[in-house]
Automatic annotation (TrEMBL):
Signal peptide: none annotated. This is VWFA domain-containing protein. It holds the Pfam family VWA_2. Residues 106-128 are annotated as: Disordered. It comes from Adhaeribacter aerolatus. Residues 179-277 form the VWFA domain.
Length: 366
């Protein structure tokens, strides 16, 4: 033993998770990939078990399925005998798992709101002081500072307070933020050997859980867009699938604008996750489609809506998960017209970018 040091045998850290907890973590990942198909997820889990020996003689996949039922994660499907479906407990677990996976390293804090750069009669005291003004409340008066001012101004012999002696604590205004998250579900989200929809779903679930937990006064609306656009609920996210669709960005933006017009929050914004160019418009009952290059007719309509959003102070942040130069050029033009922001992200960094942008926006009023 060297002086000042003591050496012992190295014992590698042990996985303290039970067999059920370890398998549950994998199962939840598979459920997201299979869009809520319990049977397919269990089949994949069995294949992984065969390849990587996830279970042992004491605890097998059959035990895991029984525990899933007993603990309330899955139920028998009443319409399809012999099959299973997710419960609300699983849906909540998926959102919390996504939040932990994507934002898990963030420092936890209490429930809050979104600060604005304005001061005055707000919700929460700040550290700033200023002179008393008409309309300030009694609770805002900083008594210690005010008494000190009176002593300095009038001396200790004949103590009295005047309005000029009073100091008050600034209060920060809080504002709600309304966000619409647009998710591209066109066919290209699963083309080229890359699953892009699963990370998008995870980000949406994590963002929904974050807002629910930390910013309960905020609103989050989620819409998907392919040939058309429609609104979905948070509950629908695990089951979201890509369709044989083109990319009707115009329909998505129109629906997002309609939703935000009804919101009374001071801050309004659109987050758009997409990997492709706009390729589709709906004209009456027919669709105008062109997947070859950037169609000027489709692009012009999309840029017109970007400008409309700018006029009504709705910034659009585009998270582009593709790297084609001509697509970047389009997104740059779209962003310039809207005066918004654009990120060219890998799938791995998508969640952190969205959280950083959301956090930054909550500190200002658009």
């Amino acid at each position: 033993m060297a002086a000042g040091y003591r050496f012992t045998d190295y014992i590698p850290p042990q996985d303290d998770k039970t067999g059920f907890e370890s398998l549950l973590q994998i199962f939840m990942q598979l459920i997201t990939i299979t869009s809520g198909d319990v049977g397919e997820a269990l089949s994949w889990l069995s294949s992984l078990d065969k390849q990587y020996n996830l279970t042992n003689n004491e605890y097998g996949i059959g035990n895991f399925i029984e525990d899933l039922k007993a603990k309330g994660y899955i139920d028998e499907n009443e319409q399809q005998k012999g099959s299973f479906e997710l419960t609300s407990k699983s849906e909540i677990n998926l959102r919390r798992s996504a939040l932990e996976e994507i934002f898990g390293k963030l420092k936890k804090s209490g429930k809050g709101n979104h600060t604005t750069p304005h001061t005055g009669q707000g919700d929460e005291a700040s550290t700033d002081r200023r002179e008393f003004q008409f309309g300030d409340t009694l609770e805002q008066i900083a008594m210690t500072d005010s008494i000190r001012n009176a002593q300095l101004n009038h001396g200790l012999g004949d103590f009295f307070l005047t309005e000029n002696d009073l100091e008050v604590t600034e209060r920060e205004h809080k504002s709600q933020t309304s966000t619409v998250l647009m998710i591209d579900i066109s066919h290209s989200m699963i083309l080229y050997g890359e699953d892009r929809i699963t990370p998008a779903k995870k980000v949406a679930m994590a963002l929904a859980e974050l807002i629910t937990q930390k910013y309960p006064k905020d609103t989050l609306d989620i819409i998907v867009f392919g040939n058309d656009a429609w609104q979905i609920t948070i509950k629908d996210l695990p089951y979201l699938q890509v369709g044989p669709y083109h990319t009707n960005t115009v329909a998505g933006l129109e629906l997002a604008m309609d939703i935000l017009r009804k919101r009374k929050a001071a801050n309004k914004q659109i987050f758009m996750i997409t990997d492709g160019k706009p390729t589709c418009l709906k004209e009456g009952i027919r669709y105008y489609k062109n997947s070859f290059g950037l169609d000027r007719k489709v692009v012009n309509k999309t840029l017109t809506l970007a400008a409309q959003c700018r006029r009504i102070k709705i910034p659009i942040t585009t998270f582009m998960i593709a790297s084609d130069p001509y697509l970047k050029q389009f997104v740059d033009e779209f962003t310039k017209v809207n005066n918004g922001k654009a990120y060219y992200s890998s799938l791995k960094g998508l969640g952190h970018l969205i959280f950083e942008d959301y956090s930054r926006n909550r500190r200002k009023t658009f």
